[in-house]
Amino acid sequence: MKELSSGQIRQMFLDFFQEKGHTIEPSASLIPVDDPTLLWINSGVATMKKYFDGSVVPKNPRMTSSQKSIRTNDIENVGKTPRHHTLFEMLGNFSVGDYFKEEAIAWAFELLTSPKWFGWDKEKLYMTVYPKDTDAKKFWEKVGVSPDHIIEIEDNFWDIGQGPSGPDSEIFYDRGKDFDNLADDDPENYPGGENDRWLEVWNIVFSQFNHTPQDTYEPLPRKNIDTGMGLERVVSIFQHARTNFETDLFLPMIHKTEELSDHKKYDTNKKDDVAFRIIADHARAITVAIGDGALPSNVGRGYVIRRLIRRAIVNGQRLGINEAFLYKLVPVVGETLESYYPDVLKQKDYIAKVVRSEEDRFNETLADGLKLFNQVVKDAKANQQTVIDGPTAFKLYDTYGFPVELTQEEASDAGLTVDKPGFEVEMQKQKDRARKARSGAKSMGVQRDLLIEIKDHSEYVGYDTLDVDNAELLAIVENEKLVDTSKGGTVEVIFDKTPFYAEMGGQVADRGVILDEEGDKVADVVDVQHAPNGQNIHTLKTQEPLEKGNHYHLIVDKLFHSRVEKNHTATHLLDQSLRNVLGGHTQQAGSLVEPNYLRFDFNHFGQVTDEDLQKVEDMVNRQIFNEIDVTTVVTDPKTGKKMGAIALFSEKYGDKVRVVSVGDFSVEFCGGTHVTNTRDIGLFKIVSESGVGAGVRRIEAVTAKDAFKLLNDRDKELKQIASDLKVTQIKDTPKRVGQLQAEIKELTQKQQALEAKLAGQQAQNVFNDKKTAGKYSIITGIIKDAGMDQLRQLADTWRSKKLSDVLVLGTGSGEKANLIVAVADDQVKAGIKAGDLIKSISGNIKGGGGGRPNMAQAGGKDPSGLDKAMSAAVAWLTNK
Question: Which family does it belong to (predicted)?
């Protein structure tokens, strides 16, 4: 067999299908764009949905790609099995209504067996087919596959719900008897079963049905091909590796981890091998994901990143690595992927910084988790329990990052077990919550063939004019039917030429009117979108019937259009200013350009300081005041990149692109409309900056008239404040506010001192009234005109003087009440816990609380219940 690197194998696959007329699609970002059904891009076809459901017609119906993907639904298996990964690459070839089964099967066999390509022995290949798919079986036999190497399996039908579906054919490679991990008569010992010998390398899906909302399967108007070949698996075959981890995709990280570990070596014992594999796998996933804009957090994909980092750290500790180390693997990952993903290595410093920060944070959390675990063990033994319950094990996992296996190991050392089924129940609840959050959207749309069939050429001329006379009406869609004459109401139409911009790249669609040949208004344009074949399709509210073939006068609302243009050009200035001020790692994560404001989302680790935000705003306005010409060049993507144009992960670029340049300050690929000179923007003002997700910040801003109005309104507010403060000149307002703050601080300090003095005087009476509650002593009391700070100070005094076993104090006024409970240290050891007592009595003040075993507090909204709370505390302690 050929000796090939992972990079050579990937390129060979893409070259093969390029020779077969396929366009090589670049790997998309791991972060899905406009797809709420996915947390991550999890397959090659995930980026092709718009082509398969017919919402967009590709320029070439034949496509191929190597798509980076993430799946974490079975993260617990990563490292323990030969082939489970979080990040993986899926090689695929796709046909949208072009070739079908015969060509897909013939080409797959050619790639795998031809000496020019993979050159595998055909006798080592086995194929599975859907029993009713006699064509697939016939075509496999036609290319030379022996009938006894073709296996019928009922599960070979690809169906993810509504949308395209169909039978599939899986290809397995026989690794030989050395890989046999099952007995000859084991029911799973066959190609397609759960075993290590026959390795699935490719799945070819024949999409030939529409799974309808009525749960029926109707023939697709255009049949599709969707295939997936796991690069990691194929590399393991070429590199004679027993598992995917002994390949050039993972070994560099494993060897680096060996250097960092406490003299540990890979491939010496099973326990350490699992740790090495988990670290290598997770290092790859977090490095690539952070490079694509994901950042650690407590929600969504940010939570996945955080979990992977923590799982890797815990496994590093198993190898004797007790300091931050994962960030040191980032450049190693970048080097393994450099041939196809050079941006990962270019961003290594930024990615390493994010990882190091998260490692340091988790090491602190891990210490807290160990304290909790030790307390759990202590409590269990004190109560003669032998099992750590499921919710507690899940809390250790979810809050502190303890894998349940680690909890089990530590528990075993302490002579305890873990309620694993109870843990799984809590885990499933979390998965259900996550699934529910994304269940509102469909997975893939049913093909809308009506628009696909409209292939008339339509030209957008809005870059040059906003007024087009004599535009021919080519198509009318009314009630999901093509008609020659509309009846009125809402219709969709396509003209042979149009000045109306179709919504794209965050810029909203133009608005305007349609006039007939006599100059009378017949419709309002309320929306414009791109039809599957690229035409601008207008949504109209009609006042009169429209006739196909007639000519109409199309007029864009110039004021609306102009305001959108100003805001769009401002987003370009904002984008580059953010890069200049915050660093080149910032990437656009979305935008919205409306006539009255703009919204710009970007990836950034950490908050944006007020100082940096001001620098950004000043930089944008500097470009506006410098009156810089905005120019547009139409060229090819390669030339555009040489010009320095910034490309977005989320955009697919055709043969021709528009490069928009604002002098030498900003150069971007953009199909939107723009001002001719930055002076047209007038003024730029940031309205707000906030976080909207894991590592994603949002700026909202206004320009021109809206910016002037914002400043004018703020000026009026400032004048009103100055008047209220009795300041004659606005410039003196900050000074007066400072004086008032100083006065308030002084008065607050005096109030607190008086409260403390009063509380201390009341406490003398309270401390002298010690009661007996069973075998314990307790002091209770209600302190008037005090706050929690005073109650805590009194509790400290009580503890230093050792006045009783338990102290319960309360205070309240209006609709607010507070309680504090303190327990002497020797009584905590005897089993009396402040937290238990506070929970027992806080209901009397209609509140709740908690705390440590020796100190707890509660808040409520019913001060009238304080007396009952004191009595309840005495009763609770008496019964102990």
Answer: Belongs to the class-II aminoacyl-tRNA synthetase family.
Q: Dihedral through CA 230, CA 235, CA 241, CA 244, nearest 10?
A: -40
Locate 401 and state its tokens. 């990052």
103 within domain boundaries: yes
- The residue range of the domain holding 190 is 6-249
Q: Is residue 618 part of a domain?
A: yes
Inform me whether the pLDDT recorded for 438 exceeds 60: no
Q: Is residue 568 marked as binding?
A: yes
Centroid of chain to Cα 53:
24
Q: Are residues 532 and 664 in the same domain?
A: no
**Domain CATH number, residue 76:** 3.30.930.10
Three-state secondary structure call for residue 404? helix
Residues in CB range of 52: below 8 A, 6 or more apart: 45, 96, 163, 164, 207, 224, 226, 444, 447
- Counted domains in the chain: 5
* CA 702 – CA 688 distance, rounded (Å): 10
Residues 364-406 pLDDT 10s: 777 777 777 888 888 888 777 888 888 888 888 777 767 676 7
User: Pick from 234, 249, 264: which residue ends a domain?
Assistant: 249
Please indicate, yes or no, if residue 585 is contained in any of the structural domains: yes
Between the CA of residue 647 and those of 25, 503, 640, 643, 657, what are the distances in Å?
15, 19, 9, 11, 11
Scanning 156-294, the segments in alpha helix (DSSP H) are: 231-238, 251-260, 270-291
Domain CATH for 597: 3.30.980.10
- Over residues 257-277, the pLDDT tens digits come to 999 997 889 987 788 899 999
Report the candidate in 278, 245, 270 with the shortest Cα–Cα distance to residue 76. 278
> Residue 440's pLDDT is what?
40
Same domain? 660 vs 527? no
Residue with tokens 């809050």: 399
Residues 423 and 468 reside in one and the same domain: no
Name every residue whose Cβ is closer than 8 Å to that of residue 66 and which is 6 or more positions away in sequence.
Answer: 10, 13, 14, 27, 89, 90, 91, 92, 231, 340
Name the pTM for this structure: 0.70
599 plus 527 within the same structural domain: no
The predicted-structure confidence for 20-51, as pLDDT tens digits, reads as follows: 999 999 999 998 876 767 889 998 888 888 88
In which region does residue 79 sit, left (phi positive, over 0), alpha (psi from -120 to 50) or beta (all else)? left
Name the DSSP class of 544: S
Tell me, yes or no, whether 778 and 826 share the same domain: yes
Residue 504 sits in a domain whose CATH number is 2.40.30.130
Paired residues of 313 in beta bridges: none
Q: Would you say 553 is a known binding-site residue?
A: no
pLDDT exceeds cutoff 50 at 558:
yes
* 538 labeled part of a ligand binding site: no
Q: Indicate whether 218 and 308 sit together in one domain.
A: no
In a domain, 738, yes or no: no
Structure tokens at 575: 């984008």
Q: Indicate if 503 and 630 belong to the same structural domain.
A: no
Same domain, 531 and 425: no
Average pLDDT of the residues in 776-791: 86
Q: At 491, is the pLDDT very low, low, confident or very high (cuts 50, 70, 90)?
A: very high
With a cut of 60, say whether residue 649 has pLDDT above it. no
pLDDT band at 873 (very low <50, low <70, confident <90, very high): very high
